[in-house]
Design a protein that fits this description.
about 325 residues; alpha/beta; ten-stranded mixed β-sheet; globular; binds (2S)-2-hydroxybutanedioic acid
Length: about 325
């Protein structure tokens, strides 16, 4: 082969390789730790459906539920390394990566209801928190609700004294640790995927979680009592690897942003509905007694836990707590 022919052949080959690459879909691996039939699990599927449809297959979203790919504790690193592109961790899980500001959401009784919460996540506080992610190589795309948390154990939990001496599982958050210590509990940090077995074997006596997580993980099989404390909130930040996100063609990124908005609206509606329905489903299991606290019991729990807000202000940053209080006051709520 003469030189010109060789050059031509190699150019054609190179062209073929580029062409093949151009037709390869962009793959988004979306890993999470909860069941598929939770609000988060269903919304991840909705995002997949919308993203694939609207990009006409140029983007492929692979959803890995139930800690199949990574447990919490591992998934943040996997995202930063680019082993997965998208996650939706609970906001309690940002502390270990050096972002204790997200533990704002863990403070007991900081959000009087979902309206205040949404003002916070949809407003400047939510945007400013997302800015903290960028130096870590992460972009925040949306906030998804999980729900208000309930306490569970194998004994009825009504008054603060009932908690004393129990071992309870918490997420990796110093605020949750302080909250449990305020009740005389020994907190045990543990990955979500290990909680059922820890309850079953008595490694922990109890836990706190949202109703959808309690129900879909079948915690009602291994916890005799669930108290409707709603003492704190649990929610998610949907996050994406920044280098991956910035490297997407602008039109694809815009399409994915729109798909994410729609999946987020769906998630927040679904979580409201599931939180309402799950009490009935847990009761119907016949395995776990659901306890509604009296006003006096609720007030006693509140009194024991509200001081955690002040105690943890230096860790989180008082300005974040004040910003939430300002949003609450603007909606007519005062502590
Ligand atoms: C937990 O670890 O209890 C939750 O954050 C799991 C989840 O993602 O809802």
């Amino acid at each position: 082969m003469n030189k010109r022919l060789l050059l031509l052949v190699s150019m054609l080959l190179l062209g073929a390789v580029f062409n093949a690459n151009a037709q390869q879909p962009i793959v988004i691996k979306f890993s999470h730790v909860v069941a598929r039939d939770t609000p988060k699990g269903m919304a991840a599927e909705r995002f997949k459906e919308l993203a694939e449809q609207r990009t006409a297959g140029k983007v492929k979203v692979e959803v890995y539920p139930n800690s199949q790919l990574y447990k919490d504790g591992e998934e943040m690193e996997a995202l930063q390394l680019g082993a997965v592109q998208m996650l939706a961790p609970s906001m309690s899980k940002f502390g270990p990566m050096g972002l204790p500001q997200f533990e704002l959401f863990d403070l007991p009784y900081i959000f009087p209801n979902r309206d205040v919460l949404h003002k916070v996540t949809q407003g400047s506080v939510g945007r400013d928190l997302f800015k903290l992610l960028e130096p870590k190589g992460i972009v925040g795309l949306a906030y998804w609700d999980n729900g208000f948390k309930m306490m569970s154990a194998n004994k009825p939990l009504r008054m603060p004294a009932d908690y004393k001496g129990l071992k309870m599982r918490i997420k990796s958050s110093k605020v949750l640790e302080a909250q449990m210590r305020a009740l005389g509990v020994q907190p045990q940090v543990m990955a979500f995927s290990e909680v059922y077995q820890a309850m079953q074997t008595g490694v922990v006596d109890g836990s706190e979680n949202s109703l959808p997580n309690f129900y879909t993980q079948k915690f009602f099989e291994v916890q005799k009592y669930l108290s409707l404390t709603a003492h704190g909130y649990d929610g998610y930040a949907v996050i994406v690897n920044k280098a991956f996100w910035d490297g997407l063609p602008a039109n694809i990124r815009a399409t994915l942003e729109k798909a994410m908005q729609e999946a987020s609206d769906y998630e927040n509606e679904l979580s409201l509905k599931e939180n309402q329905d799950d009490i009935g489903k847990i009761k119907a299991s016949g395995r776990c007694e659901v306890i509604a606290l009296t006003d006096a019991e609720q007030a006693a729990l509140r009194k024991a836990l509200v001081p955690v807000q002040k105690e943890m202000a230096p860790r989180i940053g008082a300005k974040w707590i004040e910003a939430v209080q300002k949003e609450a006051a603007a909606l007519g709520y005062k502590d």
